[in-house]
Design goal:
CATH superfamily: Divalent-metal-dependent TIM barrel enzymes
Low-confidence stretches: none
Distance between the termini: 22 Å
Number of helices: 11
Strand order of the largest sheet: 5-2-1-11-10-9-8-7-6
Shape: globular
Strand content: 5-15%
Length: 282
């Protein structure tokens, strides 16, 4: 696998469509990889067909069959949960890892979640270490990576993200870098990517519009989706150059808000990759 382009299923949320409709649309747009989002139990909007999230109570091989029908592979699972709430996140991550293994997803992507107000500055690290230790035991057994994403109060900085990663020593604990979240939090996304490149297992290709940058940068720790890749502030030639120099072989999962943005993101990223490949062989 070289650098591939995938699509996070958040793009179909703007149309109030279910997972199956999003899979079909992603294939029509020309993507080869998608990143499903999973949840526990039963959720009203998903059950009614208005939302794309997949219940982990569903039969995972039926989800795999759906992906196979459209010639798609899962780049990973979006399985965000609060690491500082082990009563929630331990069973959630363990279940997500088993689900990922069943459908062939190589990584489960998550972040530390919202910090509970009742934990002090020392306790948060002990609790997160416990959660990650439990999750990593299952990840190692199933051969599925855990990808930590910059998204909340600690991981919004590269230093905080790496400190969380350093809580547990395992080859199956990696980084799912998010260019847009890092940028909005006030980080330099290129320096951040350089710092985590050797730990990178998956990347959220999220661009940020100039308007959102002007109103939110430094005020938030992330955002659900960005604009089309190439329309915003992220320099994708620079991102892909960093990945190529690092020898990254994996998926850039586009996180945007509409199918039209997804199509333009795919075209832009493919053009950047092709241009850099041509430059290397010239």
């Amino acid at each position: 696998m070289s650098i591939e382009i995938g699509l996070n299923m958040e793009f179909i949320r703007s149309e109030d469509k279910p997972f199956a409709a999003g899979v079909e649309r992603a294939a029509q747009l020309g993507f080869r990889y998608v990143e499903p989002m999973v949840h526990n139990g039963r959720e009203l909007l998903s059950e009614a067909g208005y939302f794309h999230s997949v219940s982990m109570d569903e039969e995972p091989l039926e989800i795999k069959d759906l992906l196979d029908r459209y010639g798609l592979k899962p780049s990973g699972l979006s399985a965000h949960c609060p690491l500082m709430r082990p009563e929630i996140s331990v069973p959630f991550l363990e279940k997500a890892i088993r689900f990922a293994a069943a459908i062939g997803a190589p990584v489960v992507n998550t972040d530390e979640g919202i910090r509970p107000p009742w934990l002090d500055d020392q306790e948060i690290w002990v609790v997160m270490r416990y959660t990650l230790l439990r999750a990593v035991r299952v990840a190692e057994r199933y051969g599925v990576y855990i990808g930590l994403e910059p998204h909340q109060s600690i991981s919004k900085t590269t230093e905080g993200l790496l400190r969380i990663h350093g809580l547990v020593k395992s080859d199956y604990l990696k980084i799912n870098y998010d260019t847009g979240n890092a940028y909005l939090a006030g980080e330099d996304p290129y320096k951040g990517l350089e710092a985590v490149k050797d730990l990178l297992v998956h990347l959220h290709a999220k661009d940020i519009s100039i308007r959102q940058s002007e109103t939110e940068r430094g005020q938030v720790t992330g955002t659900p989706v960005g604009c089309a890749c190439g329309d915003g502030v992220i320099d994708w030639s620079r991102v892909i150059s960093i990945l190529q120099r690092a020898g990254f072989h994996g998926v850039l999962s586009v996180e945007c808000g509409t199918a039209e943005q997804a199509a333009r993101s795919l075209a832009h990223l493919n053009a950047v990759i092709a241009s850099q490949a041509a430059a290397q062989t010239a």
